[in-house]
Amino acid sequence: MSELEQLQDEEIEALTVSGGLLGTFVAVYPDILTYSPTPAGKEIKLDISIELEHERKFELVSSVATDTSSPGAGPSHAPAAHSPDSTIETTLTHLPPLLITAVLPPSYPRTKPVIQNISARHAWLSPALVRKLAIRLGEMWTREEGEGGILWQWVEDVRSGAFLESTRDLAHPSPKILLSHLITHQATAKQARFSAQAYTCGICLSTQRGSKCIQLDCPNAHVFCLGCLKEFWGMCVSEGDVTKVACPGVECVKVEVAEDQACC
């Protein structure tokens, strides 16, 4: 049995215990799901960040077309014609969260959830892509599949960015502003992931959480705990050898020594 199938089984089983499905879901995804009761059932909100498996190139294009047929013409609602000057290419692995609002009927998971709204933080997902995603998520549910629970599939499908597989253009009223938001989000997401993982310091060889380490911008991306690196660089400065205030990783030091010898 796959991990996803196991999660689906746990989802339907959770309906029969105190707290139900959503209590289990919150325990697994505490930062993703919130819910509240409504006359139609339980309204859920899924706040899902996208993390692509590999780097992908996207083109940020303007979603606003300008009508130049008459002097002083302003923005038009017609589809924008993308010129090279208004297109920005960027490479991404992380994208800002999508907020999916849906209602789970009282008979869920044997009844299909109703998607009410999908929105993207910083509006990076165009209306056309929102509609495409809503259809995709809706089609995942069948009576047979639904009885195993569909929320787990929604979360994993959105988080992996599978719905963007054939997408290259990201339309936005201001591609430059969108680029700034995307770069900031990606840097924050990467730092959060780094901080949560464990690494072996290249100096003291102890295992530390990323929040207590730093990854240097060197060819080998060496990681050191902050205390060791501070002490090593401080020693270099106190000894007057500031040229050694660089990566102390073995591979990087070998390259530096080889370059010094080549210059002699």
UniProtKB/TrEMBL annotation:
Renumbered residue ranges of the record's region Disordered: 63-85
Family matches, as Gene3D superfamilies: Ubiquitin Conjugating Enzyme, Zinc/RING finger domain, C3HC4 (zinc finger)
Domain RWD, chain residue ranges per copy: 27-158
Pfam family, one: RWD
Compositionally biased residues, Low complexity: 69-85
Cross-referenced SUPFAM superfamilies: RING/U-box (SSF57850), UBC-like (SSF54495)
Name recorded for this polypeptide: RWD domain-containing protein
Species assigned in the record: Thanatephorus cucumeris (strain AG1-IA) (Rice sheath blight fungus)
